[in-house]
Amino acid sequence: MGRKRKSVGDGGSGDDAEQNVADADTAPVSVPKKKERKRNRKKKDAPAQVDAAEDSGGNDVEEGGNGVSRGNDVDGLEEQRGRREGAQQQNAGRAAQAPRRTISIAFPSSIVNAVVKHEMQTLLCGQLARAAAQFRVREIILFEEFDEDVNMIDFTRPNTAASEASAFIKLLLEYIETPPYLRKFFFPVSDDLRYVGLLIPLEAPHHLKINELLRFREGVVVPQGFRQGDSIQDAMNGSTSKTSKFVELGLRFPMRLRSAMPMGTRVTADFGENDLFSMPSSRFNNLVLTAASREDAEQATGAYWGYKVKVVTSLSRLLDEARRSSAYDLIIGTSDEAETIMNTSSVPRSFDHALVVFGGLRGLRHAAASDAVLVKRGMIDERVPELFDMWVNTIPRQGTQSVRTEEAIPITLATLAHNFET
């Protein structure tokens, strides 16, 4: 049955139209049977159960454990055992192939001044950090390039100063390199860090999550009884001792070190050659760890373990310290005016410690010309290549008028990796 309703236009001036409307009183109503209602309820509840399983990670966490997810079924244990054995084989292969050489890079901190907005300066530092990590750079050195008066600030130790640009880049690079669970201990809230949320995660091997285990793990020495959420500074102020045997590792609670260390110190903790995946929680909780170094972690696992950052006051200071300390057996200068690296004669096919130096927006010749010491020595203009063991151009036939430093770094490191023996 249907009924007719007249539709009248606005103001009553429109044409009449008829529209058939279903009669709600006479429309048939389908009532589901009891079994169908049960099935519908099950279907409706199913997505919520799946979401809950996904949120929980699909694994039960052993009560009183260390925060590491462990399956409680046979299939789950077999799967984890297979992953563990695969990881052990992979780490053994990495350790066997771990390169004995190291690469350090140096560039002027003035490159950040070419970027006006703070968020873009932050992203620039993120780009530099990821390039360094991708090519396993051991050390990043910033040197000053004085084109004009710059605002100098106290830095690192008494009677030492650096530009605001150096301080900013160093802060950002160290922040990015630090595992996320440790950043709150070393980096208080700062205006310079207000855009770090824009950064792409570094995802380096030592940036472990709470449910990831490796023989080595980065931590910070904390007072006994320290708990998650506590302020380490308040805890240190309330402690009668300046040293501690406890280290916060981003797990559910701090663990014990074999030897006491100054509180607030960042440390690479070594769990030893233990099978951490199958170890009972009661035994894991009572492990005594050894303080190691980043080099120890890299040598044992073959994994890249981050970079260090330092600042020097000038290009001449950088080169003088490099020669005097014999820390590097190969120092490379880069320039678009140099000979292409593939055509360079007497290229060393192996080295232990290389330092690759990049110029700023106007190149290394300009950096040398702005260095009073190098000017006094006459090491400017055509003599600048004499400062380096190699003077190379890694971007021949470039299609742009200039190549920015943050662009030249990954290109150069990739070229060196291709041309030098590992």
TrEMBL record:
<comment type="similarity">
    <text>Belongs to the class IV-like SAM-binding methyltransferase superfamily.</text>
</comment>
<dbReference type="InterPro" id="IPR029026">
    <property type="entry name" value="tRNA_m1G_MTases_N"/>
</dbReference>
<dbReference type="InterPro" id="IPR029028">
    <property type="entry name" value="Alpha/beta_knot_MTases"/>
</dbReference>
<feature type="region of interest" description="Disordered">
    <location>
        <begin position="1"/>
        <end position="99"/>
    </location>
</feature>
<feature type="compositionally biased region" description="Basic residues">
    <location>
        <begin position="32"/>
        <end position="44"/>
    </location>
</feature>
<feature type="compositionally biased region" description="Low complexity">
    <location>
        <begin position="87"/>
        <end position="99"/>
    </location>
</feature>
<dbReference type="InterPro" id="IPR003750">
    <property type="entry name" value="Put_MeTrfase-C9orf114-like"/>
</dbReference>
<dbReference type="GO" id="GO:0008168">
    <property type="term" value="F:methyltransferase activity"/>
</dbReference>
<protein>
    <submittedName>
        <fullName>Putative methyltransferase</fullName>
    </submittedName>
</protein>
<keyword id="KW-0808">Transferase</keyword>
<dbReference type="GO" id="GO:0032259">
    <property type="term" value="P:methylation"/>
</dbReference>
<dbReference type="InterPro" id="IPR012340">
    <property type="entry name" value="NA-bd_OB-fold"/>
</dbReference>
<dbReference type="Pfam" id="PF02598">
    <property type="entry name" value="Methyltrn_RNA_3"/>
</dbReference>
<keyword id="KW-0489">Methyltransferase</keyword>
